[in-house]
Amino acid sequence: MNGIYYYLIAFAIIWVLSLVLKDKLVDHGFEINFPMIMWKTQKLRGFITRISNISPKFWRWFMNVGIFVAFGAMIFITWTLISTLPSVFETPAVSIIIPGVEMPGSSIYVPFLYGLIALATVLVVHEFSHGVQAVGEKIPIKSIGLLLFAVIPGAFVEPDEDELKKAKKSSRLRVYAAGSVANMSLALIAIILVSLISAGIPHYFAEDGIEVGRVVGDSPCDGILKEGMVLESIDNHTIKDSKSYVDIVSSYKPGDDVSIKTDQGTYSIHLDKNPNNDSRGFFGIQANKHFKLIDNSLGSIPWVLFEFLELFQWIFMLNLGIGLFNLLPLKPLDGGYMLEILLSYRLSEKYYKPIVNALSVVMAMIIIFTIVIGFL
Known about the structure:
With 376 residues, the protein is an alpha+beta fold. The protein has 2 domains: 35-197 and 313-375, no CATH class; 217-283, PDZ domain (Pdz3 Domain, Roll). The chain is built from 11 helices and 12 strands. It has helices spanning 3-20, 22-26, 45-54, 56-83, 112-136, 161-166, 169-204, 242-249, 304-325, 334-344, 349-375, and strands spanning 30-33, 36-41, 141-149, 152-159, 205-215, 230-234, 237-238, 257-262, 265-270, 272-274, 277-282, 285-293. Strands 5, 6, 7, 8, 9 and 12 form a 6-stranded antiparallel sheet that branches. β8 (257-262) and β9 (265-270) form a beta hairpin. 27% of the residues are buried.
């Protein structure tokens, strides 16, 4: 069964239980109004306040720099999205991310466990950073909580809206920028850890071929090759490492019949068209480097390095990707509100509001169009 069905079943159960137990749940901080379920609490406000009070000056100056970083990132992600429109029918630039589910039009598959952990870091770091900065700007936090919009989960820190509107423009910019800047900061930390781990792996391991990390559903290899198989050769071309693998597979065309030898047997595959390049043959496997242990002085402990490597890779990719996406000049994303505040320095409300609203509609249409094309 496709992973998406497990999610839909789980969300259906959540909705049925929430509607049946609505009267009891309301007494425990739940607000249930289809298509939204919200759970609010005040318990973590003290924790956020303590973090903010560690060094208010640091948070303020860090986010002063963050405002410039955020606007630079806004320009970058907006240009990237627009510039990919000519190739949208080949490689859509935007895709829905659901851990453990193959999404049509996306070349990225997010593994279930690592994906959930990485998404949790995205939500926690993003929302808590909004809260920390709000407290630093003397804007009270009304509540903290979780939400479910139809089948889309999320988290939130709810500042006092009246106080937020009264705050200085620079204060509001810092609050809105805080979430994405924190995500990008965590992404930077994660990629540094990835680099350190990658540098340590050659001390304990040597590359020893290619392993099947995942088989794409409805692909030529689906139902034939299995996760964990080690590829030894293709049509008698020996696979020594990742470079030799890439050289071999890039030489095949759609419709070619190939013989793949693995550590579990030899299999015949009829290649299809590559979704990203019609001129190349498509196998339908995610290939990972296969390693052998060359220094066993620490026993099996070094193998844990690969688990941390993959986890930090996904923390990097999801925090960077979602952090950048949230800076698009599109309301209700943080980027939309930041652009509105920036324009208000020079324009009156009757001018900057229509500009941002119109831009939000255009950006939303581009995103929806790109996602739909991916599904088709």
